[in-house]
């Protein structure tokens, strides 16, 4: 631990200059001389207070003149989330795909103008849900020192990494929120776990034709979710679907209905061309209005009533599904929170010190506050003391 202790003690000086040291390497294992060269190049950016709920959550034109779609430039990051990809491609998030938690929360709901962020109008995702999603992904995949996270893969743009075992590898990282049984992204076992996959989208189309008369709705979501899980159990020897991924898998099944339908259309039936525009092209349909009123994962009960699922994994090749009794189930949000903090975060950051510790504590406090705002009634846990 000598290296990290030294680094984070020195970090407290908050010196920031420029040097040629590659910005994305871990500091673990560097000599004292090397550290003396590197440390002054680190910039600490503390966590910012998180935005609250929207004052105006009405339907608003999102695809406006100020937010044109622009194609990717080399190095721009896009990943498994069609919503964040789209927001970045329209400039509601930084177009390079590297953002702070506050920028992400503002983008998925709607920000009041703030000189630190961009003036933003997003999808009207409910505030406590947005906070939990942004903070839980940030704690695993983001850089607590620079306060930046990639919505795709590893990039030097998030700055110098804290020491391993921290990963800071962006939303593509498997098994936090990214995971198996996505609708339009393949399981990690098949290789590319985050790009749009036409074969999988064709299942989305087939189920919409079969159960939704050519549209995607909650009924289709239920049948497709069952199919995706059963198909992975039967074909993916490394299949796993446990908390925290479990929660995003079932939530995302209804997200297209809740957020991809134009705000002026109250039918609950998503057009497949519109779906493709988000999933594949990362583009708002022309003249798109966001939904009317903030919402979270409503409709998920339609999915779970039809397809109750107990978290588990293939223990021994395909078709060897076993239940994981240690995983939170969908009705145990507090166990999800507790295990996430005590296991996932503690594994990545076993002994943080200095500014790293300070940043983690603040972000964990924000995470807990999101569970309070969601009304979960969880008991707070303090892996690094109070
Ligand atoms: C705090 C903001 C958000 C974060 C950090 C986030 C993160 C993620 C991540 C990591 C995934 C990958 C999960 C997988 O493996 O399938 C994902 C998928 C997805 N997200 Fe988001 N997301 C956010 C907000 C939203 C919003 C507002 C929407 C809808 C407008 C949305 C729609 C989706 C959908 C539909 C998928 C599933 C993709 C698929 O199954 O093919 N997300 N998101
Ligand atoms: C798309 O997903 C399927 C599995 O669902 C996989 O077999 C195939 O290799 C994937 N295609 C690409 C290009 O990754
Ligand atoms: C996800 O996909 C990327 C690139 O396709 C790959 O580099 C990465 O290792 C994958 N993640 C895991 C955990 O397999
Ligand atoms: C989905 O569409 C089908 C076919 O139109 C319809 O029978 C079903 O009630 C719809 N489900 C919902 C939740 O809208
Ligand atoms: C996706 O983009 C391609 C290429 O720009 C375009 O031809 C196609 O119409 C777009 N599809 C949708 C559904 O937006």
From TrEMBL:
Keywords of the record: Heme, Iron, Metal-binding, Oxidoreductase, Peroxidase, Signal
Gene Ontology molecular function: any one: metal ion binding
Presence of the UniProt keyword NAD in the record: no
Signal peptide bounds: 1-20
Chain ranges of the Heme haloperoxidase family profile domain: 65-304
InterPro entries recorded: Chloroperoxidase, Chloroperoxidase-like_sf
Presence of the UniProt keyword Signal in the record: yes
Cofactors named for this entry: heme b
Family that this chain belongs to: Belongs to the chloroperoxidase family.
UniProt-recorded name of the protein: Heme-thiolate peroxidase
Top-level taxonomy: Eukaryota, Fungi, Dikarya, Basidiomycota, Agaricomycotina
Gene name as annotated: HTP7
